[in-house]
Specification:
The complex is a heterodimer of chains A (448) and B (452). With 448 residues, chain A is of the alpha+beta class. Chain A contains 17 helices and eleven strands. In chain A, strand 1 and strand 2 form a beta hairpin. Chain B is α+β, with helices and mostly antiparallel strands and 452 residues long. Chain B has two domains: 213 residues, Cytochrome Bc1 Complex, Chain A, domain 1, CATH 3.30.830.10; 180 residues, Cytochrome Bc1 Complex, Chain A, domain 1 (2-Layer Sandwich). Helices cover 42% and strands 17% of the residues of chain B. A six-stranded mixed sheet of chain B has the order 2-3-7-4-6-5. Chain B has a five-stranded mixed sheet with strand order 8-12-9-11-10. In chain B, a hairpin with a 4-residue loop joins strand 5 and strand 6. The longest helix of chain B has 18 residues. The radius of gyration of chain B is 23 Å and the shape is globular. About 5% of the residues of chain B have low confidence. At the A-B interface, helix 1, helix 2, helix 3, strand 4 and strand 5 of A face strand 1, helix 3, helix 5, helix 11 and strand 11 of B.
Chain lengths: 448, 452
């Protein structure tokens, strides 16, 4: 099998998010959890294969929480978390991590921001000390901020301006969400990144970086007895902060189907995709989310899925085709389709063929065998998810940051197992039959 | 999700494998298992999760052996082995894999052809059978070949406008010259269009044999269970095939700078020169040196000078590619067009500083402490370990390497780095390729016309 090229085109982040959803939750992490007096929730995922541990702290703040006109601040701020604090010089954080044989990185999304390091378990004390330190002690000098602003702008160049499919994705999202802040890209609009001030950054920090707005995960060779006193020592004294009331964003009903076309000199291979608004873990019932995960597996999960079989294997319209669902968000979820036409075929041929498959689903639904097989594949994937440290940590951490519970994660395989044909057919009608899709065409500049 | 550091590209993933250092501490106990049929494998038994991860590699089977004009042959085979084998056509084969969640994939590199198999224990028998079929009885049905060919062509067409891919192609050409390493593993649209089923079949019969095979296994399986499985999977392959050697490459030291002009806001810069091989007695010296120069993600000199101090680039790094026949020290950065000149100046200064001054004792200590301290992290998932078991065998490092590794790193001195740097590091020899619209940079050669 050839790994699909337009995975690159289909809204990559969402694709990956969806793959993760459908492949990782498992009733096997057996987490243990406790909460400090200051509100910091701590979760342990014991795994004693090797004397190593991953520390992951996720703050419940992401790009969607940015003030109007300040896009990119959540991500810019994430970069600044590696600068100087009252106790450490700029760059010292990473130097300490490296000196202790640790590996680290950080990420920002619409819903949350995370920081993680993996290291030998005997380094826990040091790693906790420096992670706790930067929760409230950043200094944020001009010398820290200005070169980093340039780095962020270069990052935007790399990710977006040099990449037509990312450019298109930004404009698709701006059209897709009529109201929700998801319409603004995580990395921010260039002119707003340029205009962010130190005051903006400090305000953002003081407002959101607090123990009661975070989830702290330890995956690896750990136990509550060992971890708890250390966590108390380093994180216990940090005062909680009163959290502002968050806007309960939601989307108005969408009436029109929209088309976004990007013709670009850098594009040689045309591609097609479509997105539809869908329920998510905070937008609708969880059982609906599970039904959509099963549906996405049936339509788009691999080379025996309906779309691939029909468009690629049988009809020979597309080189690749598939579908994805992403419901792991604080905001609304989305369901998507994508395809790359073969030479001699066009994006419109792909579109017609996908629509035909959707029409078949709307008319005939899915079969019991399809549902059963999809569920088994999803459940099997949950076993694979236990193999490693970083994946379990991020699955559990991200779920909690989205407002789910440990129970939701642990029960996932069982709940998915309860999905019946009827439930899948119901989401076909309510989601795939809905108005308000956005169709995206990525075309060479000279294409008709 | 976007992050502080780019998730590195294929190049680095590959290199992680090459340089993977192993944990004596975490004490993965390596058993050497030999099947009744004489197939040997390294096994780390771990019953904590009911799954098995197996990696295997055939030496002397990589894309650099693709005959002239048949570029992309090994790669195409790697995409076709799971598209029908034995009495199962493509859809039947794929359905068996998917419905039993068997993760089977193949990949062709420049030197080797590899496979990776991850299975739940409950589907072990089936996984073994399907992998054996894929290796020994691939069908190459016309329909599957056409489909995969179309996918590869689509991919090549997309890449033909990607600044990173173009930079890589042009740079490879400049640094490797006429050597087969200069040719793209994926082939070109022209070469892939011309591959026939006979080409694919002859690749399989020339390339897969038991004498070229290396196997690493991790998971919930005992040695006595693994033995028959090895024979079932690989026993049907030919025992021996003639050796096929790749010639030594003449790594360019002319310091050529090429510019591929493109109207994009950010230039992609690839640079490199001759490095040292994995078998070189100075390999560990070079390894530590590279870590300090540009290998350490948040701490290297280049990271500090290019990104932290000046904000010139989001990503800048160097790596060693220690191939026996073409060792390189190379790297990459991306920066705004009007800052390419400054970035190159900083890069050359750092190259020169290393050549003249070597490294400080503090830098050396920090690097060692990272390199030694971080190696148990390579042991966090089964497939990481099984892949590293293969790498160990590929470089003939021996199972006791796990124990010795720390000593090898600790033995590196600042004086050795200084001597090596003086001998090897040469800013005049850097072959540089830029794709973009760089300002204030003068090309010293003409970009050759390449097929994409």
């Amino acid at each position: 099998m050839m790994r699909s090229v337009q995975i690159a085109f289909c809204l990559v982040l969402l694709c990956l998010a969806s793959i993760r959803t459908t492949t990782t939750h498992a009733k096997v992490f057996s987490p243990e959890s406790f909460t400090l007096k200051n509100g910091l929730q701590v979760v342990l995922l014991p795994n004693h294969r090797a004397p190593i541990v991953t520390q992951l702290i996720i703050y419940r703040v992401g790009a969607m929480d940015e003030p109007a006109g300040k896009s990119g601040i959540a991500h810019f701020f994430e970069h600044l978390m590696f600068k100087g604090t009252k106790n450490l010089k700029a760059g010292e954080f990473s130097a300490i991590v490296a000196r202790n044989g640790g590996q680290e990185n950080a990420f920002t999304g619409q819903d949350y921001t995370g920081y993680h390091q993996s290291f030998a378990v005997d380094r826990l004390d040091t790693m906790m000390r420096i992670e706790a330190d930067r929760m409230q002690n950043l200094v944020l000098t001009k010398e820290d901020i200005e070169p980093e602003r340039k780095v962020v702008l270069e990052e935007r160049n790399s990710r977006v301006k040099n990449n037509p499919s990312a450019l298109l994705r930004e404009e698709v999202n701006a059209a897709f969400y009529l109201n929700h802040p998801y319409r603004v890209p995580v990395i921010g609009w260039e002119h707003e990144i340029k205009a962010l001030t130190r005051e903006d950054l400090v305000k953002f920090y003081r407002q959101w970086y607090a123990p009661n707005n975070a989830v702290l995960i330890y995956a690896g060779d750990v136990s509550v007895e060992k971890i708890r006193p250390l966590v108390e020592k380093h994180y216990g004294k940090i005062p909680s902060v009163s959290m502002p009331k968050r806007v309960a964003w939601s989307e108005p009903p969408q009436q029109s189907d929209r088309r976004i076309t990007l013709r670009h000199t850098q594009v040689r291979q045309p591609s097609w995709s479509r997105k539809i608004m869908a329920p998510g873990v905070q937008f609708g019932k969880l059982m609906t989310v599970y039904a959509l995960e099963v549906l996405a597996e049936i339509i788009g999960g691999g080379t025996t899925s309906r779309l691939y079989r029909s468009l690629v294997v049988e009809q020979k319209i597309a080189a690749n085709a598939g579908a994805w669902y992403d419901g792991d968000n604080r905001g609304p979820g989305s369901f998507g389709f994508y395809g790359t036409p073969l030479p001699g075929k066009t994006v419109l041929d792909v579109e017609a063929a996908v629509e035909q498959e959707v029409a078949k689903l709307l008319k005939g639904g899915v079969s019991e065998q399809e549902v059963r097989e999809a569920i088994t594949r999803l459940q099997n994937a949950a076993i694979y998810a236990r193999d490693g440290l970083h994946a379990p940590a991020s699955i559990v951490g991200e779920a909690l940051a989205l407002g789910l519970t440990i129970e939701d994660v642990e029960q996932w395989p069982e709940r998915v197992g309860q999905i019946k044909v009827k439930a899948v057919n119901a989401v076909i009608k309510s989601v795939l039959g809905r108005k308000g899709s956005v169709t995206a065409l990525l075309l060479p500049e000279d294409a008709k | 999700m976007i992050g502080l550091l780019p998730v590195f590209t294929v190049v680095l993933v590959f290199l992680t494998g090459v340089f993977g250092f192993f944990s004596p501490a975490s004490a993965a106990k390596v058993e050497t298992v030999v099947s009744p049929g004489g197939i040997s494998a390294w096994l780390v038994r771990d019953p904590s999760i009911p799954l098995i991860s197996m990696n295997f590699t055939f030496r002397e089977a990589g894309a650099s052996l693709d005959p002239k004009g048949k570029g992309g042959r090994a790669k195409m085979v790697s995409a076709l082995l799971d598209e029908g084998a034995g009495n199962l056509d493509s859809q039947a084969f794929q359905r068996q894999l998917e419905n039993q969640s068997i993760r089977l994939s193949f990949n062709a590199g420049k030197d080797t052809f590899g496979g990776s198999l991850k299975m739940l224990n409950k589907f072990r028998d089936s996984a073994i059978k399907l992998t054996a079929l894929a290796l020994t009885k691939p069908r190459f049905d016309k329909d599957a070949v056409q489909r995969i060919r179309a996918q590869i062509l689509t991919g090549l067409k997309s890449r033909s406008s990607s600044p990173g891919y173009i930079a890589n192609r042009v740079w490879s050409n400049a640094i490797y010259g006429k050597h087969p390493y200069a040719r793209p593993t994926m082939g070109t649209q022209k070469s892939v269009a011309g591959l026939s089923v006979e080409d694919l079949r002859s690749y399989v019969s020339e390339s897969f044999s038991r004498d070229r095979l290396i196997v690493g296994v991790v998971g919930d399986v005992t040695a006595s269970e693994l033995k028959p499985a090895l024979d079932q999977i690989f026993g049907g392959l030919p025992g021996k095939r003639p050796r096929r050697k790749i010639k030594s490459a003449r790594i360019s030291s002319k310091g050529t700078l090429l510019v591929v002009k493109k109207a994009i806001p950010q230039s992609v810069v690839i640079f490199g020169q001759k490095g040292v091989t994995r078998s070189d007695p100075n390999f560990y010296v070079a390894y530590v040196m590279n870590h300090i120069l540009g290998g350490g993600s948040f701490t290297s000199r280049l990271y500090n000078e290019v990104r932290e101090k000046r904000g010139l680039a989001y990503s800048v790094y160097t790596y060693l590619s220690p191939r026996q026949m073409a060792p390189l020290l190379a790297g990459r950065l991306s920066t705004a067009n009007d800052r390419v000149a400054e970035s190159l100046r900083v890069l050359r200064e750092e190259w020169q500083r290393m050549a003249v001054q070597g490294v400080s004792d503090a830098e050396l200590e920090n690097a060692k402490s990272f390199i030694n301290g971080s190696f148990p992290l390579r042991f966090s998932s089964s497939d990481q370990i099984s892949e590293l078991l293969v790498t160990l065998q590929y470089y003939q490092l021996g199972a006791d390497y796990l124990k010795n590794r720390r000593n090898l790193i600790d033995a590196v001195s600042a004086m050795q780095i200084k001597q090596l740097a003086k001998r090897v590091i040469n800013r005049e020899a850097l072959t540089v390729t830029i794709v973009g619209d760089p300002k204030g940079v003068k090309a010293t050669g003409k970009v050759p016309l390449l097929d994409f």
